[in-house]
Fold this protein.
Amino acid sequence: MNAIEFEPIGVIHSGYKEKFGIPRQPGLVHSITATLELLPPYGSREAVRGLEMASHIWLLFLFSECVGKGWKPTVRPPRLGGNQRLGVFATRSPFRPNPIGLSPVRLEAIRFERDRVLLDISGADLLDQTPVFDIKPYLPYSDRIDAASFELAEQIELLDLPVLFRPDAGRFCEEYSRQRREPLRRQIEELLRCDPRPAYQKQQSGREYGIRLHDLNIRWRMTPEQIEVLEIIPTGD
């Protein structure tokens, strides 16, 4: 078959500014919202008429950071500790023959601002500026399959550890939340309990990491007993 070209219908505006730290699956962090801006000529009231009746939608998107980086027939899934190889089609690795992703997200609102159509969503695992190819309503009667199973990933794995904030970091969260109306402390807690560390580093207790969220650099570390937020630094973005 000949090559097929797709044109993005929209672009994601998200607090996730870099690949590291984004939840590995959708629906794990609900307090961080994103916005899908539809692009001309797709950004019209007619194109989304009736979509407000859907509580959730599917987004078909491009793993834009993986374009041109190739793929391999087997990968090492983080869920298996990075030590076992599976076929790429048995995983959700972004490094695929065609770097296309599919995520179900909650549709919070549809907004019309002058000539712009904006879809506010939550539960997204999408990098800022991600191109979106299509939107489809989530149909509970057919999209949900109660008998479905996958032996390697039967349930959500979240860390059950306390998240402690150093005094300056805690005060920063309070002030940021007042100014930006973002529940920053809860966002950080949800994000870090997803354990964004690379699989091969999960036995290295106490190592310091940084995550970009909104216009901030979150510095943190993890031990077997707790997750500690060390510092929150504005990036000026």
Remarks:
- The first helix runs from residue 140 to 143.
- The longest strand covers residues 100-113.
- The CA atoms of residues 59 and 135 lie 5 Å apart.
- The chain has two domains: 10-143, 163-234.
